[in-house]
Design a protein that fits this description.
mainly alpha, two-stranded antiparallel ribbon, four-stranded mixed sheet, single chain, about 850 residues
Length: about 850
């Protein structure tokens, strides 16, 4: 890498170290009951607290969107940490730091190794190109360019960003603090998120391991004694992928290409292709790869060129699920997992939130241990703990809104477990509704802390809940997606179920498992009946079922639900076993001979992780959130990603606990089977890196726009001119055409400068703004009019209406809006820049 990139990397290392120092006093108190006192989570606490205060001060007009606000926020965070610690707390912290120097060096070594490793990966594939990277780069530049908060939306002038932008605000904070170019910061942010996730995951598992170890020792175990097994958590979270990689390797080399398996399956028929074969349930031999139905299709031709190790199809690992209707017509389904997301390199909210999701798991553990304390928590005595908890939860809502209810639910389970494990089943039941009130209050305070966003700028495409009647997830595809995690999850649950039979509550298990399926089924059917009263929605249903008759379609729906119902049964089994074990421990208390009461808190959190993930897996089989896409694509995407986070952490600890406590046979079978799954899943990242990074052949750089400058020198010269000459409050007119740059480099100047244009990617603005988009959709026509009209008065009025300061005309605009009349711009404005085909006019 160039020396400037190494210097940028070093600046970020120092900045993140400063965040560790800033957040440690707060983490030391917030996670006071955790064995390692929250050291591994301190960077995230410091980053979130500093980001929140600088954002809040700017949103309230008390500070600007600049370096001064960051320094003021740092002083406030440091002051809050000092006050909460107090003199005795500072003395305890100093003693802890001296005593645990080896552990600190080990944690920081892991962080630095992970940060450096993924920085080098990004250096060989740095381009801000493809998928949604231009959108994400636009957000980063828009925040950096905005003189005040809320930040301007560079793809919709005169409007603030409506999307959940807190993660981009956090990245902009580090970008401004380190004075690193935004195109370099984009890639450093991806590497930092990878390293922070690894450090946080290690901290979660290490605390659980130490909690179990402490149950068998008269004195607390050394922190380093849990470090080696805790490495399994970041590996499972970030490195292990799904089974698509190993299956595509077999597919590319035509392994079992002609294999047929006897199977009961739903045959889609060929009516959708104009044939005469009707759909229905079949039993008989079916080609293995046709049964798996993985992309791309069909199988590659037979070749004699030798073994093909290339995983050039790495992208389709996030399309392992195919949602097909009754006739086999496909709708898009997304099933990302962290290894894929980091490989893809989109700086998307679900990835920006990932390390903070792990922080949310740590917060749940803190609530669990707080509930186990000798004195019940009260808001009056523990208000700093409650407020910082709300700050973290609210931050998740602002980072990636989908995550907020998930981690609030996890905290509720943890709090309930702490109360039940301390006081017993009856006491927990008697105070249950009081706890519900506390959780509701926590949720409300979490959102209230971020009110300038949620009450002022937030707009949403969400439109309620819709039933999923047509698209069950085929279990073979669910195994491709979650196989590496389902193996440790069910081997752990099966062993716990057998070993702790006396502590298992079968009645609770049946109630939870069957009740979840029955309840969700009733909800889906009820929603379908309710929505059928709406003529528009009824028309969509009939369109989805066409050309089938209503009675035929209903019969096929029931048949398919039975044939492809294994996913529901397995998810419900995970809920049932997790819930049956948890309820059994609470009901039987000391009468349950195993596990020991001192081991149960760590195991309770593991069960809460399993239970929450299984619920997220099960729910989209019946319902999904309505949005602009009209399908369950986004719900699958967001829920499955969180399922991976929860199960990877729970599964890593479960495997360690099984290895420590199980008999020889259970240990060999359980750990061995899971280890095979981990190795097979681990091939995805290992095999995909060379294909994604071009075999590491190109010159490494962290500059995500270096390719742009080399490929489009005229555009780049114009961007540089705008950065040097256009004020941040200016408005650009440039062409808008489609999204993802499929039809050309749409909205590239606003993306690269952060200076707003009239309209960027219109379909994305529609997603972010919901019904409000109808009020600004006419801008697309007005942009076309501005380029094409020959009427000076019409052009002047439109330029004035949108406060346009600069007009850009390039070959793309000339192509998109043919014929473009440039003469009016010569008459109404000044030509201030020209480089090749790109001309800039200023008004």
């Amino acid at each position: 890498m160039p020396l400037s990139d190494w210097l940028a990397f070093l600046k970020w290392v120092l900045a993140l170290a400063a965040l560790q120092a800033l957040g440690l006093p707060l983490a030391f108190r917030l996670f006071a009951r955790l064995p390692e006192r929250g050291y591994a989570l301190a960077k995230l606490v410091g980053w979130l607290a500093l980001g929140y205060l600088t954002w809040l001060l700017g949103s309230l007009g008390l500070a600007g969107n600049d370096l001064g606000a960051i320094l003021l926020g740092a002083l406030l965070v440091a002051g809050a940490g000092a006050l909460w610690l107090g003199p005795q707390g500072w003395a305890d912290l100093r003693i802890w730091l001296r005593r645990e120097r080896s552990y600190i060096l080990a944690v920081e070594g892991l962080f630095l190794t992970a940060f450096l490793a993924w920085t080098l990966v990004r250096a060989y594939n740095p381009a801000i190109l493809g998928t949604e990277k231009p959108m994400e780069y636009m957000f980063l530049n828009a925040i950096l360019c905005s003189p005040a908060l809320p930040p301007q939306d560079a793809w919709l002038s005169d409007h603030a960003i409506s999307y959940y932008y807190f993660g981009y605000n956090l990245v902009a904070l580090l970008t401004r603090l380190t004075a690193v170019p935004a195109a370099v910061a984009f890639n450093l942010a991806l590497a930092a998120l990878f390293a922070l996730s690894a450090q946080a995951a290690l901290g979660i598992m290490l605390n659980l391991v130490l909690m179990v170890k402490a149950a068998h020792r008269p004195t607390p175990p050394p922190l380093l004694s849990g470090f080696a097994p805790a490495l399994l958590a970041p590996l499972l979270l970030l490195v292990v992928g799904n089974f698509y990689g190993i299956l595509d390797l077999a597919r590319q080399n035509r392994i079992l290409a002609e294999a047929e398996i006897p199977v009961l399956y739903y045959d889609f028929g060929d009516l959708a292709q104009g044939g005469s074969q009707r759909p229905g349930v079949r039993f008989g031999p079916l080609n293995l790869w046709a049964w798996l139905d993985l992309k791309p299709d069909p199988l590659p031709p037979s070749t004699t060129s030798g073994w093909n190790w290339d995983l050039g199809n790495w992208f389709f690992a996030a399309r392992a699920l195919h949602d097909r209707d009754l006739l086999g017509r496909e709708t898009e389904a997304i099933d990302e997992f962290p290894a894929f997301s980091f490989l893809l390199g989109d700086l998307h909210p679900h990835l920006l939130a990932l390390p903070f999701d792990v922080l949310g798991v740590g917060l749940a553990l803190a609530w669990l241990l707080r509930g186990l304390g000798s004195k019940p928590m009260t808001w009056r005595r523990e208000w700093p703990f409650a407020v910082l908890s709300a700050l973290i939860l609210g931050g998740l809502a602002f980072l990636n809104t989908w995550d907020f209810p998930i981690y609030l639910f996890l905290i509720a389970l943890a709090d309930l477990g702490g109360l039940g494990l301390r006081e017993g089943w009856k006491a927990m039941r008697s105070s249950f509704w009081r706890r519900v009130g506390i959780w509701a209050l926590l949720g409300l305070v979490s959102l209230a802390l971020y009110w300038p966003y949620f009450l002022v700028t937030f707009q949403s495409q969400a439109g309620g809940i819709l039933p999923n009647l047509i698209y069950p997830t085929r279990f073979q595809q669910a195994m491709v997606m979650f196989g590496p995690l389902l193996l440790p999850l069910f081997t752990t649950l099966l062993w716990l179920r057998g070993r702790g039979r006396a502590g298992f509550d079968p009645r609770a298990a049946w109630t939870i498992g069957a009740g979840s399926v029955i309840g969700l089924t009733a909800l889906a059917v009820g929603l379908a009946m309710l929505l059928s009263l709406n003529a528009d929605l009824r028309g969509l249903i009939f369109q989805a079922l066409s050309p089938l008759r209503w009675d035929e379609a209903l019969g096929l729906l029931l048949q398919r639900r039975v044939v492809d119902g294994l996913t529901v049964l397995v998810a419900a089994l995970g809920l049932a076993w997790s819930g049956g074990l948890a309820v059994g421990w609470l009901r039987r208390g000391e009468r349950a001979p195993w596990p020991s009461p001192s081991e149960r808190p760590a195991l309770w959190l593991m069960l809460a992780l399993f239970f929450s993930g299984a619920l997220l897996w099960l729910a989209p089989e019946f319902i999904y959130l309505r949005d602009n896409f009209g399908t369950r694509m986004n719900t699958l995407f967001k829920f499955y990603f969180q399922t991976w986070v929860l199960w990877s952490l729970g599964g890593a600890f479960g495997m360690w606990f099984l290895a420590q406590s199980a008999g020889r046979l259970a240990r060999v079978l359980g750990v061995g089977l899971s280890a095979v799954g981990f190795l097979l899943g681990g091939y995805y990242l290992i095999g995909s890196l060379p294909a994604k990074m071009g075999n590491f052949a190109g010159p490494p750089t962290l500059d995500g726009m270096s390719y742009f400058a080399a490929t489009y020198p005229n555009d780049w010269a114009a961007i540089r001119w705008l950065q040097e000459n256009a004020p941040a409050t200016a408005v650009l007119l440039e062409g808008s055409r489609g999204a993802y740059w499929i039809e050309g480099r749409s909205s590239r100047f606003a993306m690269a400068t952060g200076i707003p244009t009239l309209m960027g990617w219109a379909n994305h603005e529609a997603q972010w703004r919901g019904n409000y988009f109808g009020q600004v959709a006419r801008r697309l026509q007005d942009i076309q009019t501005l380029y094409q009209t020959r009427d000076d008065l019409e052009a002047r009025l439109l330029l004035e209406r949108y406060h346009v300061d600069f007009v850009i005309v390039s070959d793309l605009e000339r192509q998109w809006y043919r014929p473009v009349d440039e003469t009016k711009f010569e008459r109404l404005m000044r030509r201030v820049f020209q480089h090749g085909d790109v001309v800039i006019y200023q008004r």
